[in-house]
């Protein structure tokens, strides 16, 4: 079992990763972090407050979802990972958006919420 | 209308037209296989051949080639995992995975059929666009046409991949280059510096072949080895064909996306195929297999890249605004026949319009058919290393650009622009706006003066059509400002295109001294153009001065951007050290990535150890792209050089190779000038093959002999002149 946390370089993105790590520790599962920011570089897990020792101590892993060459859309990336792997829960950060903003740009969060088959936990930035 | 359509079809039963179409299809298929040529190269190489022809056979030839370049470029993407053109790289994702599973025939049949359908749907789109746009187009007067030309260049600049500022400056540079020659209003010579040769303006073929063709050759000629690890063409055709039928909705969706991408200037086949792929992924319920051999990942993009070329033709023929580079050249060709695309093509040359439509549709079917029949020989052609092809291509391209005016000067211009094209490509400037600007420069000026003389003051701006176009022009600018402001408030991390990745396989010299230098040089060129145009008469001065000021302004913006990038990389922010220190534990995660990302990270650690924290480490493990062997090596190379010099790549191996290739081309031109073209080819081709491509002696002898026979036979088959050279004239 794995928990998939969606990272963006924003407060709500980091909150999602934090919460994902908490959930993974609580449930004793692996943690997988999908970087769905525009800059899809490798993440520094320790910098995000993830103690990999704690995961390996109980035989689990904390890792980043490797970047995909084929799928670029953030929502599709997360949904593909969910279908491919044994994902128990998706943790997603939400932000405030105006109606116009939603109309014009659509929302990754909305697509993930609607299209995912499993449960999604959404968190807000504090 | 139906009459003209049927008449056009009847005219295609003329054997000479059909023959031209067939030649076009074969040429297009072959050129689709050669990496980097694509539609641009196909049209540019075939265009000179058409100079002596009537419009109808010329169009049949060019459209035949243009319709099928995206059919054959799939072959190398599927069988080698090395796409023949940028747009085929999307097909590679799923096609190559499928081929490796022993289902190459399934992937290829899906791709060929989708390409065919894309072409046909594109042609249908083009047909439907004629009656739909007809009343609109006929209501256009010079103000609308002027706005359309401005819009054509502006949209191409804004919508091109990458940095908008770079796109705009490339468009302006193209406009400026298009101004060279005689002014359309005052018959005054501009920017000719007293040269009679420049008085005619630059040849479109020379510019296009230089900026795209020679530049591409120079950047790829270092590939000496062909790919030999080819996947076997196995599996059955039948399964793929049956499967294709079940994905008919993907075909239609992909084609429509392609047409739309084609209609927008500057959005070419590459963006169109990615859009289609994204659409296929987003609408699929089961997304697991995308990137691992999902048929929908082949069908949608393959339909899109063929219909893009038809979509490109819609604004080209109806409005005179090229939607892409190949259609820009087609526009140039039509103009040389005195056919003015836009309103008059609908009233006077409707038969030619329908001839184009039919040719496109028939060529799409023929192209797919040929591909099915000749997969094996086609796939063996993809094994030829690019360096070997380069020798013949240089000879053919230079011969082609000689046909326009029969002047050696065009050839020198072409090589010079080849260098310019290479620098633009390597430093991340989009080249499509450049060529579109070049083609539209004179129409833009002509329409402006027509408008100016027909209307008082700015009354023309109040026409409804003009206002709509103004809105299309201004709204994206406002939108960008809005987005920029939001970005500054850090609100839109997940919807803006973000900053560019400094290291990019396509443009390895981006964000380096090279791009800073290019920005400065371009700004200087605009400054010089302002000085030079100050002496023109007021009428001839207006447009060049406007372009000059705009270019100068944007040039300063670009230079500032580049200086900021430089400062950021020379004095990296604190973030970099933090990531670098933590990169050791991060290794665990990056080890899941493939080869080149790992080398990037380890190099990063190495550099922190030697306390040269000189570049942004976070950008290093950039997503590795399975383009070709070359690009992976290249990434390693840039990493090493970054460590030594500190700011961006300096004089790289690729750069010196490219410049050596250009020197070879110069040598070829000098030889041609002295001993004549035939003799020069006989010296240039074998020596290039032996020294640069390091081909086997046997290959060299056969290659040269075949080329010699072809060149000997060509002038009797086609209206072609060979440059004679000084010696030839003396004897």
Please provide a written account of the structure.
The complex is a heterodimer of chains A (126) and B (731). Chain A is built from five helices and five strands. With 126 residues, chain A is α/β, with parallel strands linked by helices. Chain A has a single domain, classed as 3-Layer(aba) Sandwich (Rossmann fold). In chain A, helix 3 (74-84) packs parallel to helix 5 (108-115). In chain A, 43% of the residues are buried. The model of chain A has no long low-confidence stretch (mean pLDDT 85). Chain B is mainly alpha-helical. Chain B folds into two domains: 2-84 and 91-462, no CATH class; 654-730, no CATH class. Chain B is built from 31 helices and two strands. A two-stranded antiparallel sheet of chain B has the order 1-2. In chain B, helix 3 packs parallel to helix 14. Chain B is globular and about 70 Å long. Residues 491-504 and 574-645 of chain B have low confidence and may be disordered. The chains are: A alpha/beta (126), B mainly alpha (731). At the A-B interface, helix 3 of A face helix 12 and helix 25 of B.
